[in-house]
Amino acid sequence: MIDMSENLLQLKEVKKYFPIKKGLFYKTVANVKAVDGVDLSIGQRQTLGLVGESGCGKTTLSRIILRLIKEDSGSIYFNGRNLCAANKKELRQIRKGLQVVFQDPFNSLDPKFRVREILKEALYALEKYETSEFEDRAVGLLDQVGLGRDAIDRFPYEFSGGERQRIAIARAISTNPKMLILDEAVSSLDVLIQKQILDLLLKLKDELQISCLFISHNLNVLKNFSDRIAVMYLGKMAEVAPALRIFSEDNLKNVHPYTEALILSGVRRKVSLKGEPESLLNIPSGCRFHTRCPYRKDVCRKREPALELKKNGHFIACHFR
Amino acid sequence: MRKSRSQFRLALSHLKRSRASMISLFILLVLYAAAIFTDFIVPYAYDDEERLFSYAPPSRVHFFDDAGKLRPPFIYAKTIELDEYRRRVYREDKEKIYPLKFFAKREKYKFLFLFGFDRCLLGVDKPARIYLWGADSRGRDIFSRLIYGSRISLTIGLIGVSISFLIGLIIGGISGFYGGGLDNFLMRLTEMVMMIPTFYLMLSLRAAFPPGLSSAHVYLMVVFILSFVGWPGLARVIRGMSLSLREREYVLAAKTLGVSDIKIILRHILPHCSSYAIINAALAIPAYILGETALSLLGLGIQDPMPSWGNMLSEAMNIVQIRFYPWVLLPGLFIFAVVMAFNLLADGLRDALDPLFKK
C-alpha cells in the first residue's frame, strides 16, 4: 500500500458491531456487523468515492471517522494523528480539519437558527471573532458557495433544497478543513440541482485544496468527482480501484462482480443482480457476495477472499478477478 | 423581499386567531393584574375582621333612595336581627346612607412593597362595611380575601411550574442526550418518584416540615412540594425527545464542529422541546393550583388568616354553609375559571405551535 505519511486519512482494520441486547440482563443475542474490518486510505487533495447499497455500513464508517460513533477495534490516523487515542481536547482541534456534509439538507440545518447563527456556531466553536470580522467571514463563505449577502438573516425554511445544501457546505468549509466527508451529499436533490452542487464541490475542492470522502449509492455521481473508488459490500471493502479503471467500459470483466453489477445497473441494461443484500446480522460464510454472485463457484462458499492488489493500485476481494 | 419571521412570531399570529384562548388570556391577565395591585383594589386587609357581620350577605349597591331619587351609588347600613333558629338576619337600615367612595381611606399598606399608601379603589366610610361578595364566618370581606388569595394561588402555579420544568428539562435533556448508563440511572430515579401516588407524596412531604412555620415559609414549602411532585412526567417526555433529537443531523454537524455538549443541549436539543414544554406548562399550572387548593383545604397548606383559594374553600365544606351562605363557594368559581382558562390557552398554544412541525 501507499506510504502512511502521504495519506491524510488512514483506516486500519476498523470494526464496529452493534450488539442486539435482549431480556432482563441485556444479554447480547446477536451483532449487527456494520463495519467488519475496513482498510482505507485517502491521500492529500485526493477524493475517494465510497459506493455501496443502503445498509452496507457506509454511513457507520463515515460516522466512525467523524468520531460520532466509537469503533470497537482498529485504528484511524488523520493527518498523522491517531484519532482513536485522542482525548476530548485534542479531538476538538482535530475536528477542525475534518468536516461533513450530510444527505438531507432539511435535517442538517437547525430550523430555529438563522443562517447567521448557523455560521456563527461553526466559526465560534473553536475561535473568537470580532463582530465585523465575523460578518466579513460569513458573507465571504456564503459568496464562496454561491449565495448572496441577504441570505444571512433568513431561516432554513426559506431556502430550497439546493440552497440549503449550499449553506451546509458553507458551514463545513468554515473551519478550513483538510478533508470533507460528503455523506450522500447530493442524493436527496433532483438531477439538475445535483449537477450544480457537484460543480460547486469540484470548484471548492480545487480552490481550498481539500480531500474528500464522497459517499454515495450511485456510481454515476462519483464518476467525475473521484480519483479512486471504493466499493463496500456488507461491511467490508469489495474493491478499491482508481476511478479510471472502474469506469472504462472494456474493463468490465476486470472488476469485482458486484461492481460490475453496479455499473451495469447504471447504464440501464437488464437488472443484473437478483435478490436483496443479505442482512448485516447474518453475513454469509465464505465470500460475502456469493449468494448473489452470477459467477460463484464452490470455493466462494467456503473461503473468504482477501482484498488483494491485482495491478495498478487496483484491489479486489474476489477469487477469480 | 418578504421579512423572515421566526417561529415564535408565526405561532403568535396563529394564537391571535383563536378566540377561546384570547379570552382565556384576557381573563388570566386581569386576574394576574389584580394579584399585583391587590392592596389598591381591595377595601380591607385579609385579616380585617368584624365578628358582628359574620356571614353578612353581599351588600346591595343602590342608585335610587327610598324616595325614588337618583343618587350616586350608595349602600345602606345593616341592622342585625335573629330569626327563630337564632340565625342572623341582615336588614338594610334605610335611614343610614353610605355613598361609595372612590379612593376611599383604608388601613395603611405598602403599595407594591415600595411606599406607604392608605387609599383603595372603592370603599365606604366607617362604621359601615362594604361586602361586595359577602363575608365569611368571621366577618371578613370575601372579595378582599379572594384577591389576596389570588396572590398565592396564582403565583404558586407559575413558580412551581418553572421550578419543576427546570428540573425536568435538565434531567430529561441530559438523560436523553447522553443515553446509556446515566440515562438508565436518571430514568429509574424518575420512575421511583412517579411510582408514589402524588397526593400521598405531598402529604408525606408536608409531614417532613415542622408545624408552626411562618406564612412565607409555608408558601415556599408548598411550592417545593408541588414542584418535587411535578417534574418526573416532563423529564420522561423531554428525555424521549432529546433521544431522538440527538440523532438529527444538525446535532451531529454541531458535534463535528467541536461544539461542547452543554451548548448542544442548550441550543439544539432543549429549544426544540420548548413548544412541547410551553404547552405542557400551561396544562400543568392548573394541577399546581389544584394541588395547593387540596393541601390548603385540608389545613396542610397556607394557614389562616393568610388567605388562599384553597383554605377559603374549607369554609364551604359544610352543606349548611353552602345552603345559607352560598357566597363562600366563590373561591371555587375562581379556581374553576382559572383552571379552565389555562386549559383553553394551552389548547390554543398547541394549535398555534403544531403547524410548525408539519412544515
TrEMBL record, chain B:
SUPFAM superfamilies: MetI-like
Parts of the chain that traverse the membrane: 21-46, 152-178, 185-205, 217-238, 324-346
PROSITE patterns xref list: ABC_TM1
Topological relation to the membrane, as annotated: Multi-pass membrane protein
Record domain ABC transmembrane type-1: where: 150-346
UniProt keyword terms in alphabetical order: Membrane, Transmembrane, Transmembrane helix, Transport
Keyword Repeat among UniProt keywords: no
InterPro entries (alphabetical): MetI-like, MetI-like_sf, OppC_N
GO term, biological process aspect, one: transmembrane transport
UniProt GO cellular component terms: plasma membrane
Subcellular localization: Cell membrane
Entry's family note: Belongs to the binding-protein-dependent transport system permease family.
Protein name in UniProt: ABC transporter permease
